[in-house]
Specification:
This protein is mainly beta. Among the domains are: 153 residues, Immunoglobulin-like; 62 residues, Immunoglobulin-like; 127 residues, Jelly Rolls; 119 residues, Immunoglobulins (Immunoglobulin-like, Sandwich), CATH 2.60.40.10. Strands 40, 42, 43, 44, 45, 46, 48, 49 and 50 form a nine-stranded mixed sheet that branches. Strands 2, 4, 7, 8 and 9 form a five-stranded mixed sheet that branches. A hairpin with a 3-residue loop joins strand 49 and strand 50. Helix 2 runs antiparallel to helix 3.
């Protein structure tokens, strides 16, 4: 005999989110909290999204990470809430003999669901919640990963997930925020309701540390919480709230306080400026402000670098610049004597060469580094340094190219002292003083076409360049400040310069490189290419999760980023010898966007498959082949769209559930 009342199976089905959906629906996740954890720990994260009915799995990229789905809480309507309340009443009326631990747990589960359900969420697209348990191996490589959820209809989009090196502390996850009512905005301010109910303490902690009071629902708004350093604190910002963390400091400590927020969720489509804009404020025990940062150079995520002036307690506060907040305003702050690279030089090297890189920064155990990139192809590679405490630093991009290279030589700030170069050339230099400029001269012939291009902002340099090309008499032939690069990912200020011109006569020509704001310093490095056009292309493919019905097809968007006037056709194919997946489509000579079809003869995949799509083209007698970088097409502030890079192009083949 069934020991549950007659509606209990319906309740269980509701918990699992088993409802009918159409194949056209796209699985979406908008935040994960906490967005990472320490090596060698197991913890739970909350993932908010929509159209996740039947969610059954979770995947984190890279080795040393395991993830499994624990629970799923779907947003419920009033009728579903009423049904659950009725069932709780029936369960509570059972005789003590029938009310075993399973029934007691079910009652608590239902009451928690009803208590946390929000009928009018501030953002419906993140109101369905999946609980995932993540296990990080002790040797899991620290740094950026990606997390996705799996459903019977395929995979969700990816979100950034970090593997950290120091102990982590997490606030309990926020309950879904209510929709703000016009004229009653104050009711939503300064309220950060979290659930810390009995039995849920494992959801409030990472690496054995938790915040909040277990056993009750509590408002944790503006509480000052003590944390031991080094550590990473994880939190969510509610509307109008400020989170404060207190820690003990010693005189002379060189502390790094680095935020990840926009780096976790690059774009929030229904917000201006388009992302969570965190502000960091450091105060001493008397409340005196020691440091304030609302960004780091041109990046929205702030970093405070501070030498502690005296022994004592210090408070670090974080809030949104315009006091917005919601459960997807997720942040991570790493606090401690962590290694932090502020600049490298040079910013790149020629393929196959041995290059020693000069490092500047905080708490570094090494100031010179020779990376093993001899076998690497042209492209960008992350460079990290070892810290004095054995931890790895933040990554800095390093470029490899095919052209001959040289170093900038001083003095070269005027035409009469311009550094002579022979084309083609890649110059590695820096605007090392405010107000300084670098000038280069070369010999050209009438009718020759010349390109000058700066790579600085795309290599994490704060340089905001402008370029000017003149003839020997000083006549300006070309000028450029900013040139947009669709391959720049989440960089929303395309500050690198690009000019292309045909030389009018035989003679000497000059290239002037400035910082538009007349700033400078050792961190203002650049790579300046001066050459004839080097026609080439790069590819982006969206989305980065492809879900295909059994023995069927799906469509993808492929973007061609054509460089230096490349106008040849690009043929597309799946890389490798596989007849399980195939691609149909190409891009014509001037085409920059095309829809392609990916086809499979599989009935179903047990695990997602990583695919690589590559494009091939000819340039004269040369064949050019490039892999397409998987991306997500994301909107910023209701208007602008950006191609956000992902680590992998994952494909699932599914057999749709029967009605």
């Amino acid at each position: 005999m069934n020991r549950y009342p007659r509606h209990v199976p319906a309740i269980v089905g509701l918990f699992a989110g088993v409802v009918l959906v159409t194949v056209s629906q796209a699985q979406y996740i908008g935040y994960v909290y906490p967005a990472g954890g320490q090596q060698g720990t197991t913890f739970r994260v909350t993932v908010g999204g929509q159209k996740l009915e039947g969610v059954n799995s979770a995947f984190v990229s890279g080795h040393g990470v395991k993830a499994r789905l624990v629970d799923y809480n779907k947003k419920m309507n009033a009728q579903e809430v009423q049904l659950l309340n009725e069932q709780v009443k029936e369960l509570k009326e059972l005789s003590p003999a029938k009310k075993d631990q399973t029934v007691t747990n079910l009652i608590a589960r239902i009451e928690k669901l009803v208590r946390e359900n929000v009928t009018q969420p501030a953002c419906a697209s993140i109101a369905n919640l999946a609980i995932v348990e993540v296990t990080l191996a002790p040797d899991a490589k620290p740094g950026r990963r990606e997390i996705r959820l799996g459903t019977p209809l395929g995979l969700s989009n990816p979100l950034v997930f970090m593997v950290g090196q120091v102990p982590e502390i997490s606030e309990p996850p926020m309950i879904t925020c209510q929709l703000v009512t016009l004229g009653k905005e104050e009711q939503s301010l300064r309220k950060k309701i979290r659930d810390a109910g009995k039995g849920d303490t494992d959801m409030m902690m990472t690496s054995g540390m938790m915040m909040g009071s277990a056993g009750a629902q509590s408002a944790l708004d503006d509480e000052e919480v003590y944390v031991p350093i080094p550590c990473t604190v994880n939190g969510q910002i509610a509307q109008g709230s400020v989170d404060r963390y207190r820690f003990g400091g010693r005189k002379g400590q060189r502390l790094v306080m680095a935020v990840q927020a926009r780096g976790l969720i690059p774009y929030v489509a229904d917000a201006v400026p388009g992302w969570f804009q965190p502000v960091l404020v450091l105060c001493d025990s008397k409340g005196k402000e020691l440091a304030y940062e609302d960004d780091y150079r041109f990046k929205p995520d702030p970093v405070i670098l501070c030498e502690i002036p005296a022994d004592g307690d210090y408070t670090l506060a974080i809030y949104d610049a315009i006091y917005r907040g919601r459960e997807d305003f997720v942040y991570r702050i790493t606090i401690g004597e962590m290694p932090f690279v502020t600049s490298i030089f040079p910013l790149g090297a020629r393929v196959g060469s041995d290059t020693t890189i000069e490092l500047k920064g905080w708490n570094l155990a090494e100031t010179r580094l020779t990376p093993d990139l001899k076998e690497a192809a042209p492209g960008l590679y992350p460079i990290t340094a070892m810290g004095t405490n054995g931890f790895l630093s933040n990554p800095i991009p390093f470029a490899l190219g095919n052209l001959p290279e040289c170093l900038e030589k001083e003095p070269n700030s005027m035409a009469k002292t311009a550094q002579k170069v022979t084309l083609p050339i890649m110059v590695n230099g820096r605007i090392d003083k405010p107000g300084k400029r670098d000038v280069f001269r070369f010999d050209g012939r009438r009718g020759e076409e010349v390109v000058a291009e700066v790579m600085a902002r795309r290599l994490d340099s704060p340089l905001d360049s402008d370029l000017k090309l003149t003839d020997a008499a000083g006549n300006v032939l070309a000028f450029n400040d900013d040139s947009e690069d669709a391959a720049a990912g989440i960089n929303t200020h395309p500050a690198d310069s690009y000019i292309r011109a045909i030389l009018p006569t035989n003679g000497t020509y000059y290239v002037y490189l400035n910082d538009t704001q007349h700033r400078g310093g050792e961190e203002y490095g650049y790579r300046l290419r001066i050459s004839a056009p080097q026609p080439d292309f790069a590819l982006r493919v969206a989305p980065s999760s492809v879900n295909i019905r059994s023995n069927s097809t799906a469509s993808l968007s492929v973007y061609a980023i054509r460089q230096d006037g490349f106008t040849n056709a690009i043929q597309l194919a799946v890389k490798g010898s596989t007849n399980i997946f195939s691609v149909t489509g190409s891009l014509a000579g001037t085409q920059t966007l095309a829809k392609i079809t990916i086809k499979t003869r599989l009935g179903e995949t047990k695990e997602p498959v990583n695919l690589i799509i590559e494009g091939s083209a000819t340039n004269g007698t040369q064949k050019i082949v490039h892999e397409a970088v998987p991306v997500e097409d994301r909107m910023q502030a209701f208007l602008w769209r950006h191609l956000v890079p992902a680590e992998e192009l994952k494909v699932t083949v599914f057999n749709p559930p029967k009605p």
